[in-house]
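Lecture notes, continued. The same structure-token format from the folding unit now serves as the input rather than the output. Read the line below as a description of shape only.
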């Protein structure tokens, strides 16, 4: 299951995200979304958990949990919608 994590502290790393979710089972492919110009975290990311039951438990336990002073928003990721291209950046 692909899981969305929002309201993350900007200091949280992909390794830290994997460690947080690995308490509930196998957690892989952690991705923190960054600003393309500054490479700074945008405060949200995704992680995959192949076992559905473990993923559901992780969501239940981590949604609203305080991590580094921020209450995480955790839920099943929705499929990405096709968005029109923003065009060239100048």
């Amino acid at each position: 299951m692909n899981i969305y994590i929002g309201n993350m502290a900007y200091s949280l790393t992909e390794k830290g995200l994997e460690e947080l979710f690995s308490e509930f089972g196998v957690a892989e492919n952690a991705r923190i979304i960054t600003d393309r110009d500054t490479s700074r975290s945008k405060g949200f990311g995704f992680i995959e958990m192949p076992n559905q039951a473990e993923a559901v438990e992780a969501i239940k336990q981590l949604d609203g949990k305080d991590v580094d002073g921020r209450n995480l928003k955790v839920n099943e990721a929705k499929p990405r919608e096709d968005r029109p291209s923003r065009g060239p950046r100048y």
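Point for the exam: Strands lie at 2-6, 28-34, 41-48, 66-67, 70-71, 73-76.
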